[in-house]
């Protein structure tokens, strides 16, 4: 069957636009018809921007006629609702920012606008990016397109679900502890977290400032490289941005893995890992080996402490970052008029959801006098040990390959009342955030219920090229990334 426009990738549409075989307006119309067809089932978006998208499409078509087009010109993208777009509502999935309209663009948005890309809308997410299932969103959960009774993952669940359901061509998410890679795994798409400092965080509403990073969610690895090319680079507006030359990541995409050594950490293949996930990942490792890579078992001995460390450091940073939401300058404000203290208290009680309140309290406790040394300081010291584990590993190998998530997507409501169980779902993703490393999740199979599973590749600092090369090699020698949900809806459109 001939592909519909909404099913295509950035690089496929770029070629059609370049050859004048299709217009950006036609692509936008195709994507919005698709959204109309499936969004009620998926709930991937919080805000849709059809009028803005058509305006952007007209600008893009003019640019193409003038032969000034870039790779993203005329391509409809979805943006996680934690990244600021001037004049477009940005809620962070929270009542606290339900009506917030930023007066400025995030740096990544400026970069995308400079290529005349199209914004389809802002995607659903866990409130303030705090969650692994998209169930903490004030606007209701996004759903997994492969089974709408299941979670799409989080916190960038809407971004991954929109890409998987073909409700956009690609999207941007943010990753603090796995929030791009885990939903990419659950939704059967590609999710890339760049090295900390590679992509500007200016205009990304902060959760945990030493961990947050913006990255692409795409239909294939080539699109991830294209988007990374566009959003990477030094930004003086972000004090954590690294002034380092950005290579052309698409040049790293080759179909073999010759010369690469893959480290397989024994700590990631332990009791509790779903057997079907383990088989799919080990089969994936064998496929990359067949394409020329060497395989070496390694050890990352402090992996067992990563979740505990993360859930001390991230809430500590969150309680500081979220102190600004007090009802005074912007955001939700309680009607309470008795006194200032009560207004603060009631505003925050009404404006934040249960998970955000839980993390604020955890962070406040960890930073409090008498407990700082026992909790936050100790966690920071163990974080250093986790970083050293990776430093030692990369003396022996080029990449570390692991499962992305310990199990496929679970049912909506299954874990929401058991936060500890949900936190443990991040066990394979948080170590890379603690160490600031680049990593990717690519589809590597489906379980017996037809749910996608992901393989994760972790690289050394600023070695996104190796990460993308390995992922592309695997992808091009398998067909997992070509599968899409909603076949009935596709044929009907």
Record the SSE blueprint.
Blueprint: H1 10-18, H2 24-42, E1 45-48, H3 50-65, E2 76-80, H4 107-113, E3 118-123, H5 157-164, E4 170-174, H6 181-187, E5 190-193, E6 214-218, H7 221-231, E7 261-265, H8 275-290, E8 294-298, H9 306-321, H10 340-351, H11 354-367, H12 373-393, E9 399-403, H13 419-423, H14 430-435, E10 439-446, E11 452-459, H15 464-476, H16 487-492
Parallel strand pairs: 2-3, 2-4, 7-8, 7-9
Antiparallel strand pairs: 1-3, 4-6, 5-6, 5-10, 9-11, 10-11
Helix pairs in contact: 2-3, 5-6, 7-15, 9-11, 9-12
Structure description:
The protein is α/β, with parallel strands linked by helices. It contains 16 helices and eleven strands. Strands 1-3-2-4-6-5-10-11-9-7-8 form an eleven-stranded mixed β-sheet, sandwiched between helices. The longest helix is centred in the C-terminal third of the chain and has 21 residues, at 373-393. It is globular and about 65 Å long. Residues 488-493 have low confidence and may be disordered. Helix content is 38%, strand content 12%.
Provide a brief overview of the structure:
The protein has helices at residues 10-18, 24-42, 50-65, 107-113, 157-164, 181-187, 221-231, 275-290, 306-321, 340-351, 354-367, 373-393, 419-423, 430-435, 464-476, 487-492, and strands at 45-48, 76-80, 118-123, 170-174, 190-193, 214-218, 261-265, 294-298, 399-403, 439-446, 452-459.
């Amino acid at each position: 069957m001939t592909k519909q426009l909404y099913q295509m990738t950035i690089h496929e549409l770029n070629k059609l636009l370049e050859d004048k075989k299709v217009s950006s307006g036609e692509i936008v119309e195709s994507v919005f018809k698709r959204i109309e067809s499936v969004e009620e089932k998926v709930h991937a978006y919080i805000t849709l921007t059809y009028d803005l998208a058509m305006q952007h499409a007209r600008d893009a078509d003019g640019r193409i006629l003038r032969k000034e087009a870039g790779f993203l010109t005329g391509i409809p993208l979805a943006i996680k609702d934690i990244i600021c777009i001037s004049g477009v509502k940005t809620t962070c999935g929270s009542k606290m920012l339900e009506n917030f309209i930023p007066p400025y663009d995030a740096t990544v948005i400026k970069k995308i606008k400079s290529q005349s890309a199209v914004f389809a809308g802002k995607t659903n997410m866990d409130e303030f990016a705090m969650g692994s299932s998209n169930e903490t969103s004030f606007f209701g959960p996004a759903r997994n397109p492969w089974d709408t009774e299941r979670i799409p993952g989080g916190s960038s669940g809407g971004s991954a679900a929109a890409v998987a359901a073909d409700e956009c061509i690609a999207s941007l998410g943010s990753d603090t502890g796995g929030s791009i890679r885990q939903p990419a795994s659950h939704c059967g798409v590609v999710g890339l977290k760049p090295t900390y400092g590679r992509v500007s965080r200016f205009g990304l509403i902060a959760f945990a400032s030493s961990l947050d990073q913006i990255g692409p969610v795409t239909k294939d690895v080539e699109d991830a490289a294209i988007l990374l090319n566009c959003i990477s680079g030094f930004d003086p507006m972000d004090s954590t941005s690294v002034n380092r030359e950005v290579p052309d990541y698409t040049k790293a995409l080759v179909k073999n893995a010759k010369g690469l050594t893959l480290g397989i950490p024994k700590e990631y293949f332990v009791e509790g890992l779903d057997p079907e996930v383990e088989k799919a990942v080990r089969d994936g490792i064998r496929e990359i080996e067949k394409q020329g890579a060497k395989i070496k078992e390694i050890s990352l001995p402090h992996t067992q402490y990563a979740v505990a460390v993360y859930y001390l450091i991230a809430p500590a940073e969150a309680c500081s970052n979220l102190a600004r939401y007090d009802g005074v300058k912007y955001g939700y404000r309680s009607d309470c008029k008795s006194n200032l203290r009560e207004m603060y208290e009631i505003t925050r009680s009404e404006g934040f959801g249960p998970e955000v309140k839980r993390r604020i309290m955890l962070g406040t406790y960890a930073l409090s006098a008498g407990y700082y040394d026992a909790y936050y300081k100790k966690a920071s010291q163990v974080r250093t040990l986790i970083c050293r584990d990776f430093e030692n590993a990369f003396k022996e190998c080029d990449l570390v390959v692991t499962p992305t998530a310990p199990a496929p997507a679970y049912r909506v409501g299954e874990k929401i009342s058991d936060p500890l169980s949900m936190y443990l779902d991040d066990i394979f993703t948080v170590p890379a955030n603690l160490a600031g490393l680049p990593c990717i999740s690519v589809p590597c199979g489906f379980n017996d219920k037809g749910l996608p599973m992901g393989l994760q590749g972790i690289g050394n600092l600023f070695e996104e090229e190796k990460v993308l090369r390995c992922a592309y090699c695997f992808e091009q020698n398998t067909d997992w990334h070509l599968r899409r949900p909603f076949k009935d809806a596709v044929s009907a459109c």
